[in-house]
Structures are given as structure tokens and as C-alpha cells.
Specification:
The protein is an alpha+beta fold. Among the domains are: about 170 residues, Orthogonal Bundle (Isoleucyl-tRNA Synthetase, Domain 1); about 170 residues, Valyl/Leucyl/Isoleucyl-tRNA synthetase, editing domain (Isoleucyl-tRNA Synthetase, domain 2, Alpha-Beta Complex). The protein has 22 helices and 27 strands. A 4-stranded antiparallel β-sheet has the order 6-5-16-18. Strands 11-12-10-13 form a 4-stranded mixed β-sheet, with helices on one face. A 3-stranded antiparallel β-sheet has the order 9-8-14. Helix 2 crosses helix 22 and helix 10 packs antiparallel against helix 11. The longest helix has 28 residues. The chain is elongated and about 110 Å long. The two termini are about 30 Å apart. The relative contact order is 0.13. The protein binds one RNA strand of 75 nucleotides through strand 9, strand 13, helix 7, strand 15 and helix 11.
Length: about 750
RNA sequence: GGGCGUUUAGCUCAGUGGUAGAGCGUUUCAUUGACAUUGAAAAGGUCGGAGGUCCAAUUCCUCCAACGCCCACCA
């Protein structure tokens, strides 16, 4: 009986072996494509064994860099399971395989996490000097990053740590800024005073994607503006009204169009013009609408169409969401009454005052409309006029639509193609300025004369006025502006070997929830900056839910820590549970019961090892086995299952492949083949015994290989402990690993 | 207001143009025999509803219903 059997007399304990196995892999260097053993023309190589042949083909996946502001959650575990599966499979196929790990500083996301931390400490980011705050967040982020890296190791990610990247690495910062500068030169970014979704709590503007809409019931006020009655929910913006708009064909107001009417503004009397615009719905309210271009997206657009007729926008709400009337009406005693009021307070007081003056006709309390909220804090967003940097997306979107349409980039599942096209076709310019400090500062310089210089270094003097009172734009890029360039930045574009070898990458595997935020931007920016698509295929996985179908979130308190359950049941069990349950685009549901089931599977495999091995006899070595008809059929079936699993993995049907190997090992191999071999294994006839053993061993060996991409730890551990599986012309090559066995 | 998706066994979900599958759960049986984190077996579904195409539909088409999601500047 071979020695390693002792090992299998103890129950399988993932905790004991996983770290050890990971170290073995990592130290082998095989995560690094450059260190994969190269086969000589014929025969074996020194370290790789004769079966492994590195083919010239490359295979590359860039890891979606996790936000380094906390621990890994199940979403991360899912991408590890899927990407590691692809990577391990391709590596075993003999491809030069690179899985490039990274981490994202995650600008606004991390800023909000850090804000909460500060809040607990009784501090506030607005009181901390920029440099100091940046240093603190950097420290916080790097420490999280370190934790995540060790967690990725625990999950078994076979990524090349020698190539890891962080979105705030110097070269990444520099190249991200280069892209901005180039886009500025090409007229693809512009600075514009535009309405921006402003979060009063977070004190920053957001992009359209960061706005969440929610239906709310809000009082709709019918008020008198001179002879016209109109409906509005936003009484408090009335001080910023610059016009009244009606539909050009609305007969009710035909005689008013183009005329000025006198209104009582509560802080005096003024005249505003009635204009006609198609955007006004004559059937809503009274068909007349007040125009406040500084605080409403519609009104802003109407103003742009009527610039010559009506005054410039008047801003009456400040960045804290309070009325700042004294900026415009400083001489006005009445304005003091409203100045400094928060929006809702102001609304109430104005309503009372208007009622007093007989200007409030009625209030509709059942009016429902979609409110724009901050996706992080759910507070109402306040549209504010601000100078921000915008990416002109139209020219970028066109080729990005084309490459998906013509199949150069495949999206899986296909249903997301439609979603992608719809978004791309209706794309709006992208606000990339964020009023936070955590991120890559925008390489733009403002002179007090109003001149703008776009470059990295501080200009000595202003190109416009030759003055030297120049300050850098305090804003940072939207984090997606840097992560949107990730594929080529992570591969050290433009001069590296990696860029030449691995760009475009083979698969971009990520969650469907960031199709617009990330995938779409990578496609646009990749084509723009590099002239080539960033990846050939997009594989979108679902969002991990708990057993009540709820999205896991900290605020709901239903977050299951993948590392915690991996600690108990093993990383293999966690991975298998995720893959078995994950069809592309559908949300997998994870529960401890499920994971426990796959831990049982691991135990089963462990016991199979023991059983196969305990029937070994040294004397078999000299015996030529005689396979029965049954044996031959089993070996033939093995080839069939191998082919099927291969086909399913190639077709990205990982869950089907996982089911196949699971079912085969447990219910075909263990329950049938092994059970049926028992009589022969106990036979007096050594030839019969040898044959039965040989068949079992051969099938088991093949099954371990097939299972390895799904459950890498236990398969490798068994492989390492069964030298009989690793024989090479009778000699055991101890260094050989299952990880680089031939598929 | 547009668009998308889901509806299959008690639960969670796969799958397929040719008399329905898995895991978990349930029931019965088996135990000094590799493994109770086990094995053998069983019960359980008119594949949301109504039409249509087809020799044949759970699978393709149309409509309906329920649920869910995404996008969207109607005050």
C-alpha cells in the first residue's frame, strides 16, 4: 500500500490545505505566462512534464479591479470563480495565459465610505486640508487593497501578481491625464457651464448614470403669475424665473405670446416674458410653465432655444441647497426673509405668503412624479449651473455601436446587446468632473483672467493674459474615466510586450449592472485612444442574491461574507456553488445550505481517492491488465463526457459543464463504476484486480483534471498526494502540478 | 412614457421541436464492507393562461395575466 494513503484516512479539511496549495502554485511561477514551461520539440521539459505543451496562442482576462474600500463580497467571489475557471482551463489547454489583477481607487464610492468613517470619528472631510485627507484615504485604500489581495488568494485566483495594477499607480495617473489632454485637443472634451446633478450632501456633481429615479408624491401648486395661472412643484425657485412658457399652438395663451406680463415675485414686482416652446405640454396643469433655467433641466433647454428673448439664468439656490437671494437682490429687504432658507422650508413659507396675497389658487396633493435622487444617499438632487468638464460622447459612441453590431465584440448573454444599443444611441454628454479630492486630479489650469490651460505641469504664465495667478482645477475625474481605460492602461500601453501580446483581451467578465458605467466606456475609450477594441467578448454575470432574492447590501444587513463561508466549507465549495448556479445574466442565489452541499461533494471526492488508492497492489506494476467490455465502455463514456465538458466550457456554458462533471464524478463514477468494480477488486485473480484498479485510476485521474478549473484546491491536493497519478515513465516528477496538466 | 426579462417538482433553478431534469426537502429501506458530509429506491409537475404554426410545442409565433428590472428632462 503506498504511503500517501495515510493522508486520506483523515477527513478532508480545506482549511488545512488551501493556503499551502496556493503557495505551491504561486511559488511555481505558473500564474505568470512568461514562466509557463515551454515544451521542447519532443519529449518532456524539465519542470512541466511531458504532457504539457505551451501553444503559441495567448489568452488574457483582465480582472475587473475591485473597489479597494472594503472587503470582498460575493460578487467578487463570483467573478473569481468564473474568471479563474476560464483561466485555468485555457492554461491547461496550453495557452499562454494571463489573468491580470488590479484594484480600483473607486473615487466617489470610496469617498462616501470614508466620509462615513470620518463621521463616526466625529470628523468631516470639509474640515481637513486636501493633502492630508488624500493621504488618509490613500492609506485606508491601500490597506483595503492588501486585504482584498489576500482574499483573492484565499479564493484561489490564479492571477499573475507580478503584474498587478492599481488605478492610482503613477503611470496610470499620467496616462489617464494624457487621454484627457488628447481628447481636449481633439475637441472631445469641453468645459461648459451646464446644469449638473448636484448632491447637496456629498457636495459634488454626478453623471446621469449616478442619478436614481423614484416616484414621489409632491404637492403641485397652482399659482397666479399676473393674469396667467400655472402649476409648479418648485415654488422656491420662483425667484429665479426668467420667463413663462406656453405651447405655440395653445389658444388659451395666444394673445400673451411675446408679451411681457407683470408679476408679483413676493420681493417686488417685475415683468417677465411669455414665450412659446414646443416642449410645453398644453394638457399638463394649465398649459403654462414658469421657466427657471438655473434649476431645471427642461427650463435650461428652453432657455437655450430662447437666449435672445429672455434674460440669463438666475441662480437662487446655493450648493448647500439654500436660497441665496441676497446675491441677486442684495438691496431688497423682503428678500432677506427668504435668504438662507432650505428648499422645503422656503416652499412652505412661500406658499403661505402667496396664499396671503391671493396668488395661490389650489394645491394638488396627489401629484406623482419621478424625483431625481443621489444613488448613494437618496437625497433629492439639486440641478445647479456649474462649469464642468464634459466628454462629447456622440463621436465615441458611433464606432462603439458598430463593433458590437458587426460582431467584433460579442456580448453574452445576447439580450444585453439591445440594452447596450439603446443606451449608446441615446447617449448624453458625460460629466467627468467630481468635486471630491479622492481621485486623479484633472490636468487643467485656470487663470484668474478666465484662461484655461490643459496640461500636466503648472504653466509658468497664462497664455491669454500672461499673468501667473494660476490654479489647478481642484476637481478629480469621475472614477470611470480611468477605469474606462483599464484594458490598455493595465497592459502598459503603448510600448509594452504585454500590450502587444494580450490586447485586445479575450474576455471581459463582469456584472451586468456596470454595462454602461464601465463596459460601454471601455469600448468607447479603447477605440478612441488605441484604435482597437479592448476585448473580443463581454461575459456578463448576474448579481448575487441571498436566499430571499435580495441584493446583498450592507444597509440591509444580509451580506454573507464569502471568505467566512470559505473558511468553514472551503473555497472550492464556494466556487462550485456559485458556478453551478450562475447562468449568464441571471442572478444567482447563494445560501449556506448550497455551499454545504458542495463541501459534501469535496468530501466525496476525498473518499474516492482513498477508495481508489486502497485497492492498489505493488504487483499490479508487472501486470498487463485485461479490460472487460464494461471497462471499455466506461473509458469510452469518459471520452464522451470529456468532450461535452470541453464543448460547454468553450461555449461559456460553465454551469452546464459544472453539472456534468459533478454528476459524472458522484453519480456515474462513484455510484456506478466504483460500486460495480468492488467484486473484481476483491477477486482472487490478480489480473482482474489489476484491470479494475487501472480503470478506476484512469477515470479518476481524468476526472480530477476535468474538475480542476472548478475546484482547484482539492483536485491539486489529491494530485500532489498521489504520486501514482503523476508518474512519468515510472519516475515520479514531484514538481509537476495538476494546474499545468494537459486538459 | 419607452424597452427588457421572468413564470418548469414543496423550495432554488437548469434544459429541450419528439411522451420532463438537477440540488435541497419529503417518504421507505440499507450500516463493523472507501465515504452517514453515505448508499438503494419512491412520491411529487396537464413546463402561468388563451390561441396559432407544425406529423409533433414546455421549447417557435401572437395575445393576455402576474411579478421583476432597466432607461427616460413633462413643470
Amino acid at each position: 500500500m503506498p504511503k500517501p494513503l495515510d493522508k486520506f484516512n483523515n477527513p478532508y479539511n480545506p482549511k488545512e490545505i488551501e493556503d499551502k496549495i496556493y503557495r505551491l502554485w504561486e511559488e511555481s511561477g505558473y500564474f505568470n505566462p512568461d514562466k509557463l514551461p515551454i515544451s521542447s520539440a519532443k519529449g518532456g521539459s524539465a519542470s512541466g512534464g511531458k504532457n504539457y505543451k505551451l501553444k503559441s496562442k495567448n489568452f488574457c482576462v483582465i480582472m475587473p479591479p475591485p473597489n479597494a474600500n472594503g472587503a470582498l463580497h460575493f460578487g467578487h467571489a463570483l467573478f473569481v470563480a468564473l474568471e479563474d475557471l476560464m483561466i485555468r482551463y485555457q492554461r491547461m489547454r496550453g495557452k499562454k495565459t494571463l489573468w491580470l489583477p488590479g484594484a480600483d481607487h473607486a473615487g466617489f464610492e470610496t469617498q462616501t465610505v470614508f466620509d462615513k468613517k470620518l463621521e463616526k470619528e466625529g470628523r468631516n472631510r470639509f474640515q481637513i486640508p486636501r493633502d492630508e485627507l488624500y493621504r488618509e484615504i490613500l492609506e485606508f485604500t491601500l490597506s483595503n487593497k492588501k486585504t482584498m489581495e489576500s482574499q483573492l488568494r484565499k479564493l484561489g485566483a490564479s492571477c499573475d501578481w507580478s503584474r498587478k495594477k492599481f488605478t492610482l499607480d503613477e503611470d496610470i495617473i499620467s496616462k489617464t491625464q494624457d487621454t484627457f489632454i488628447q481628447m481636449y485637443k481633439d475637441g472631445l472634451v469641453y468645459r461648459g457651464k451646464r446644469l449638473v446633478n448636484w448632491c447637496v450632501k456629498h457636495q459634488t456633481g454626478l453623471s446621469d448614470l449616478e442619478v436614481k429615479h423614484e416616484e414621489k408624491t409632491t404637492p403641485l401648486y397652482y399659482i397666479k403669475y399676473g393674469p396667467i395661472i400655472l402649476a409648479t412643484v418648485r415654488l422656491e425657485t420662483k425667484f429665479g424665473d426668467t420667463a413663462i412658457a406656453v405651447h405655440p399652438k395653445d389658444k388659451k395663451y395666444k394673445n400673451f405670446i411675446g408679451k411681457e406680463i407683470e408679476i408679483d415675485t413676493l420681493i417686488g414686482k417685475t415683468k417677465i416674458k411669455v414665450i412659446a416652446d414646443e416642449a410645453v405640454d398644453p394638457d399638463f396643469g394649465t398649459g403654462a410653465v414658469k421657466i427657471t433655467p438655473a434649476h431645471d433641466f427642461n427650463d435650461f433647454e428652453i432657455w437655450q432655444r430662447h437666449k435672445n428673448e429672455i434674460p440669463h439664468p438666475i441662480e437662487v439656490i446655493d450648493k448647500f441647497g439654500k436660497l441665496n437671494l441676497l446675491e441677486h437682490f442684495s438691496e431688497n429687504e423682503e428678500a432677506k426673509k427668504y435668504h438662507g432658507l432650505k428648499i422645503l422650508e422656503a416652499r412652505k413659507i412661500i406658499a403661505e405668503e402667496m396664499e396671503k396675497r391671493g396668488l395661490l389658487i389650489k394645491i394638488d396633493h396627489n401629484y406623482k412624479h419621478n424625483a431625481a435622487l443621489c444613488y448613494k444617499c437618496s437625497n433629492n438632487l439639486e440641478p445647479r449651473l456649474m462649469s464642468q468638464w464634459f466628454v462629447k460622447t456622440g463621436p465615441l459612441a458611433k464606432p462603439a455601436i458598430e463593433v458590437v453590431k458587426n460582431g467584433k465584440i460579442k456580448i453574452i448573454p445576447e439580450k444585453f446587446k439591445k440594452v447596450y444599443f439603446h443606451w449608446m444611441k441615446n447617449i448624453r454628454d458625460w460629466n467627468i468632473s467630481r468635486q471630491i479630492i479622492w481621485g486623479i486630479q484633472i490636468p487643467a489650469w485656470f487663470c484668474e483672467c478666465g484662461g484655461i490651460i490643459v496640461q500636466k505641469e503648472k504653466p509658468k504664465k497664462c497664455v491669454k493674459c500672461s499673468g501667473n495667478k494660476i490654479e489647478q482645477d481642484p476637481d478629480v475625474f469621475d472614477t470611470w474615466f480611468s477605469s474606462g481605460q483599464w484594458p490598455y492602461l493595465a497592459l502598459d500601453y503603448p510600448n509594452s510586450k504585454d500590450y502587444k501580446n494580450f490586447y485586445p483581451t479575450d474576455v471581459m467578465e463582469t456584472g451586468w449592472d456596470i454595462l454602461f458605467f464601465w463596459v460601454a466606456r471601455m469600448i468607447m475609450l479603447g477605440i478612441y485612444r488605441v484604435g482597437k477594441i479592448p476585448f473580443k467578448m463581454v461575459y456578463l454575470h448576474g448579481l448575487v442574491r441571498d436566499k430571499d432574492r435580495q441584493k446583498m447590501s450592507k444597509s440591509k444587513g444580509n451580506v454573507v461574507d464569502p471568505l467566512g463561508v470559505a473558511e468553514i466549507y472551503g473555497a472550492d465549495a464556494v466556487r462550485m456553488a456559485l458556478i453551478m448556479d450562475s447562468t449568464p445574466g441571471n442572478d444567482p442565489i447563494i445560501s449556506e445550505d448550497k455551499i454545504r452541499g458542495y463541501r459534501n461533494f469535496a468530501t466525496k471526492i476525498w473518499n474516492i481517492s482513498r477508495f481508489v488508492l486502497m485497492n492498489y497492489d505493488q504487483k499490479f506494476e508487472k501486470i498487463k491488465p485485461q479490460f472487460t467490455k464494461e471497462d471499455k465502455k466506461n473509458l469510452k463514456d469518459l471520452i464522451t463526457i470529456h468532450k461535452k465538458i470541453t464543448k460547454d466550457i468553450e461555449g461559456l456554458k460553465f454551469h452546464i459543464a459544472a453539472h456534468s462533471i459533478y454528476h459524472y464524478i458522484w453519480h456515474t463514477f462513484a455510484d456506478k463504476i466504483l460500486e460495480n468494480s468492488k467484486p473484481r477488486l476483491r477477486s482472487e485473480n490478480i489480473i482482474e484486480r489489476a484491470a479494475a484498479f487501472k480503470v478506476n485510476l484512469e477515470i479518476f485521474s481524468a476526472a480530477l483534471k476535468l474538475l480542476h478549473p472548478f475546484m482547484p484546491f482539492i483536485t491539486e491536493e489529491i494530485w500532489q498526494n498521489l504520486p501514482i497519478l503523476r508518474r512519468d515513465s515510472g519516475q515520479v516528477k514531484n514538481k509537476k502540478m495538476l494546474m499545468i496538466e494537459k486538459w
